Amino acid sequence: MYEYDDAVLQCFLKKQSQLFPENVAESMGEAEAFLEDCMAVVVESPKEVRAYFEEVGVDMEDADSILEADEVFEVGDGRYLIVEG
Asked: Average pLDDT for residues 31-36, to the nearest whole number?
């Protein structure tokens, strides 16, 4: 199980509407439980975001736009949270 730090949890709480039509979490605890249930991952760079999507078999025709996918949340410290809703 991955442990999500405060920066990741705050990022998800703030930006969850980019992926879901309504909030799925209202607190840090709810956000952590939701991310654990989704098996969300945190990666360290855009390169790792692309590698993740290649590994799970997502078509990468426009690799540069993958960072703009709804499932990708920029944490703000160089890391990215990937949530498959």
From this structure: 97
